[in-house]
Amino acid sequence: MTTSTVDSAALARDNHTRTRWHWQVQAELMKVRTTRLWWIYLVGVVVFTAWALLRNGATHHYELYPPLDQFPPDERAEAAARAVTAATPAGHAAIAADMLTSGQFLGVLLALLLGVLIVTNEYGQQTAAATFLTNPHRGSVVVAKMVAAGAFAVLFWAISTIIDVIVTPFYLNSQHASTPLTGWVPVRSVLLSLLAYVMWAVFGVGLGSLFRNQVGAVVVAMVVYLGGVVTALGLVNLIYLVYHHMWVLKAAVIAPAVASLVMSTPGRAFDGAPAQWVGLLVMTGYTLLFATVGAVRLRRRDI
Predict the structure, then answer these.
(1) How many angstroms separate the CA atoms of 202 and 153, rounded?
(2) How far is CA 138 from CA 119, 120, 123, 294, 302, in A?
(3) pLDDT digits (tens, 9 = 90+) for 223-254
(4) How far apart are CA 38 and CA 114, in angstroms?
(5) Distance CA 218, CA 224 (A)
(6) CB 209 within 8 A of CB 235
(7) Cα–Cα separations (whole angstroms), residue 290 to 115, 177, 227, 298
(8) What distance, in Å, lies between the first and last C-alpha atoms of the chain?
(9) How far apart are alpha carbons 28 and 39 in whole angstroms?
(10) Residues near 147 by beta carbon (within 8 Å), at least 6 away in sequence
């Protein structure tokens, strides 16, 4: 049975009513702030960022200074060539960009899961009916949830980026890599990282609207994100073994997780990867699609 609500002209004219959109956004933010979950997520962002900085730092150190005597003879020339490329100004800029976005991979996952839980918590805790009765316009409630998810995604990004900005200059100096952090390549990567956080949070709200079961929604979200990269790249590489055309490798970008990776990676995310703007375009399409599906689904769902 669909629950009906009262929608009157008097209610619409009431300038103090809490059904106005900014009150709805504040209500959604408060729902998250009054739980312990978001503190766990914040701790997760800090831990994942620290781990990613250590991992990326070690990776780039061996990229800049490879222990050639430990490489097989047939691989030494390739390792030396990579070191020469990494030591160029463009190489230093790419390293800076990677360090400044450390923690994004798992941080974005947390933003996605938070977006899912913002919706599914309503049904898990049986507060959906009260939410939609208090706010007669379901469309504005959905938008408020997306804005709240995006706001927390920005917070996750900001915390991770602040840590990265503090650590990266010291790391670059220790590796004798000089490049301005205000250069276009690092700045572009940081801004695209912000966009990735927000897009996945909105994606999560849309995805969560398709499920009533919270555990099922979380599992699907993790499979889409974590399994998406491995599955898509593995599949296209298998096809490429039989059908040698570069567009086959580029086709992996159709998976949202791969599109996000391509979008936020300076240069090429993997062999045969398309340009960053392709990943941005695909990810934008998925975000708009799931935002629309989520809005329609929640407006029509019985409570």
Answers:
(1) 9
(2) 13, 15, 15, 11, 12
(3) 989 888 888 888 888 888 888 778 888 888 88
(4) 8
(5) 10
(6) no
(7) 12, 42, 19, 12
(8) 7
(9) 16
(10) 25, 28
Cα separation, 46 vs 48, whole angstroms: 6
Please give the Cα distance from 49 to 106 (Å, whole number): 8
For the entire predicted model, the pTM comes to 0.84
Mean of the per-residue pLDDT values of the chain:
82
81: amino acid identity, one letter: A
3-state DSSP of the chain? CCCCCCCCHHHHHCCCCCCCHHHHHHHHHHHHHCCCHHHHHHHHHHHHHHHHHHHHHHHHHHHHCCCHHHCCHHHHHHHHHHHHHHCCHHHHHHHHHHHHCCCHHHHHHHHHHHHHHHHHHHHHCCCHHHHHHHCCCHHHHHHHHHHHHHHHHHHHHHHHHHHHHHHHHHHHHHCCCCCCCCCHHHHHHHHHHHHHHHHHHHHHHHHHCCCCCHHHHHHHHHHHHHHHHHHHHHHHHHHHHHCCCHHHHHHHHHCHHHHHHHHHCCCCCCCCCCCHHHHHHHHHHHHHHHHHHHHHHHHHCCC
